Amino acid sequence: MITGSIVALATPMKVSGEIDWDALRRLVGFHLEHGTDGIVAAGTTGEPTTMTVEEHFDVIRTIVDEVKGRIPVIAGTGANATWEAVNLARYAKDAGADYCLSVTPYYNRPTQEGLYQHFKAVAEAGLPVILYNVPKRTGVDLYNETVFRLAELEGIIGLKEATGDLERAEELIEHFQGSEFALYSGDDPTACEFVLAGGQGVISVSANVVPKAMHDLCVAAMDGDAERAHQINTRLMPLHSVLGIEANPIPVKWALNQMGLAEAGIRLPLTWLSDKYHATVGETLQLAGVVK
């Protein structure tokens, strides 16, 4: 079981939109140096929906090769066609990923039984599956009751819960208390309370920018040091907020550019951060101590 701060890694791109492979490798090194506990390759923040299949595969393989087993790699393998999600999971397994992160099928709005059958098929690909529920993006909600059913299947080992609903999270944590099923927050603003309540960590956007702080927050929360966890979280809350000022990963890619970690590259239909937000995000990065 992975615990702690898992970064939902942004994919560095050149101004042309071409993937910057050298910057991607450097970004992995940045996280290895600053305490990140795991990396999601080609998750939502990594823009996989704008990649070719070959690019998606190459991003996963490049990150696996660069990590060299030092921390776990979770491959983003979600798709709204079950056959595609299964094939992505199979490839991620062949590439050496440790787990896959599989989002609920977006746009086609399956029933709860459809979600169950979809994830059952993904699990049969042979790579341990972390379910991913983010209804605001996908248009479909994976109910807790369906998670309980799925957790009984071999190969489904965790959930990234990104609704930000702590009451819902507490029901999950209570149900799985004492089990090996892992629960990760997918919502940075509520992640501190999620982990203090018994979650195993966070799959984080903010960790792209402040990896050590997110690691330290998780360590404090898992140790039950609520005072220390809240101190760190209070300092990070403005950053959590501005990284959602436009659709993820627009603000975080701008932040990485300001930090000198990536060129100003993003792919349509996403666009570079609007000029009107530059000062707000820039000031928050200064307060967080990541730029001067």
UniProtKB/TrEMBL annotation:
It holds the Pfam family DHDPS. It catalyses: L-aspartate 4-semialdehyde + pyruvate = (2S,4S)-4-hydroxy-2,3,4,5-tetrahydrodipicolinate + H2O + H(+). GO terms for cellular component: cytosol. Pathway: Amino-acid biosynthesis; L-lysine biosynthesis via DAP pathway; (S)-tetrahydrodipicolinate from L-aspartate: step 3/4. Pyruvate binds at residues 45, 203. InterPro entries: Aldolase_TIM (IPR013785), DapA (IPR005263), DapA-like (IPR002220), Schiff_base-form_aldolases_AS (IPR020625). Belongs to the DapA family. This is 4-hydroxy-tetrahydrodipicolinate synthase. The gene is dapA.
